[in-house]
Model the fold of this input.
Amino acid sequence: MLGFLIQRFLQAIVVLVVIAALVFLGVFAIGNPIDVLISPDATQQIRLDTIARYGLDQPLWQQYLAFLGRLAQGDLGRSFVFNMPVLDLVLSRLPATLELTLAAVAGATLLGVPLGMFAGYRPHSKVAKLLMGLSILGFSVPTFWIGLVLILVFAVSLGWLPAGGRGETVTVLGVEWSFLTLDGLKHLLLPAVNLSLFKLAMMMRLARAGTREIVLTDTVKFARASGQSEWTILRHHVLPLISIPIVTVFGLEFGSTLAFAVVTETIFSWPGLGKLIIESIQSLDRPVMVAYLMLVACLFIVINFLIDLAYAALDPRIRARR
Amino acid sequence: MSAPLLAVRDLATHFFARNAVLKAVDGVSFTLDAGEILGLVGESGSGKSVTGYSLLGLIDPPGRIVAGSVKLQGRELVGLPTAELRALRGRRLAMVFQDPMTTLNPVLTIAAQIRLAIAAHERVSARAGRARAAEVLTRVGIPDAARRLDAYPHQFSGGMRQRVAIAVALLNRPDVIIADEPTTALDVSIQAQILTEMKALVSELGTALIWISHDLAVVSALASRILVMYAGRIVEQGPTASVLRAPRHPYTSGLLDSLPARAEPGAMLRQIPGLPPTLAALPPGCAFQPRCPRADSLCGMAPQVTLTGVRGWRCHHPLDGGPP
Ligand SMILES: Nc1ncnc2c1ncn2[C@@H]1O[C@H](COP(=O)(O)OP(=O)(O)O)[C@@H](O)[C@H]1O
Ligand SMILES: [Mg+2]
Done:
């Protein structure tokens, strides 16, 4: 186990260095950051000074090493727009996205898995066909459109729920959370539903496919032959057997939504990471982009690691191989 | 003669494929007495497993029992509501499957799986469940059972896994166990062990056993009576010794000739000519006719069952009975 941890840690370092190179090339080396840093009417002297100060006259590899050095010290620079350390800025936006994403992915899983299992268990029933039809809708209708419809119906027409913002928050462990107040929950509901529809469709399809396959296996037949009820079989045999692909998708969806909830956060003015990155791209706030991309890389590394741990917890055969 | 424990009459289980009806079991009748060991032999694809599943009502769509009757101590099982059937499964009728690698759930411990099987019929505490699991595993010859309860199936060999499956089948001392080629996937030495143990166990518990196999040698070592199945039908039945000494159906005779023990040392084994039948394209009349050395024009009509005392066969041109 310790060997496994060390191995994963080294892998993570390598991945981060590679990502850092890509981010560096993508964000720093393409285009000229100087044009953003100084005003167009600055003197030639100021221009040269700035270039020297930021090390832009150095060869590319030296700039990269310097960039890596700063990264290693956790120094990602200051935001041009907010004029604060970008790490603090990005981390301050993380909780909002975290709670939105968790609500969306967990909701989609808790609802989608049972529905999908039912559809896989009774594939020819009307309900199953209806669910599968709806899941196609969930896949194909664009998120922004559903978001707008949700706002129109529930915020504008019916007036039941707010159209945007985080609402009232409570500070726990120095971080603000919306889901702990009623008002915050109300604000959370629409964007979470908006984000979760696609995932709901995916979870349903995944659970359905797994269930359809597993109910035909000898494992299920043998359980039936010993007199176990259909409910017991679904709950104790099928669910554990289909949970591995579900956990995988849960993790990956969680990661990608955390990183790219851009559309929903913009529509619902949810002050999270997605909204921040869109704003920083618009204002060419490069340090924010770098910090964000590095954070996303770290998130995926952590999530993949957690998925692996979950595999081991769910499947004894994987445990044995370690 | 008292009523048999299990009476199967004209059982027919068909699979409704896209453009064909596959008659996997097509009018099977037999009886089973309490404590009896009955062998069911036939080439693979002849409908043995489907017969076994049908007895427990375990046929999944697109298959269905379309006709016939299965009576357990006079009680009709065909058409019984699912809940009542479920209450009988594992308690009165149990089944062991062919491949021990696929029957146990790979992500549950042995104890958990046995506990689920116990809980299907009665409420048990976790402790009582474990004790019972250890007891039944010991009974089927798993050494050090109490300490291996928390192991997972992949930590057991094929033979050990099949013993666990047998333990689950024996859990409630059922009246009948249907053993569907339980040793086919195992090494020969382990096969012999399990055969012997199983025979001892059922005779000790008074459980009747239907032993399904494609291997006539295995069945004849175990069963007091055998049924020979071909393309969904029983083509011959009778006491094992009698059938082996004087097979009446040419198919049974062909099976006997292809047994290694009957061949001259070093000689080629005699095979039944031709291929096993495909259900989608059966000839009219006797299904064995294309492979049969005795076939003539009469065989285009399906032969009826001929019964003489304990023997029965389905053939227009049976072989000589010889001295009884
Ligand atoms: N699930 C199924 N769907 C369609 N046909 C099936 C199915 N199961 C069995 N059959 C048909 O029933 C025939 C008999 O199968 P089976 O009882 O498994 O044979 P065996 O004697 O080898 O146990 C097969 O040849 C196949 O055509
Ligand atoms: Mg079979």
Q: What stands out?
A: Chain B has two domains: 6-92+175-263+271-313, 102-173. Residues 188-205 of chain B form the longest helix (18 residues).
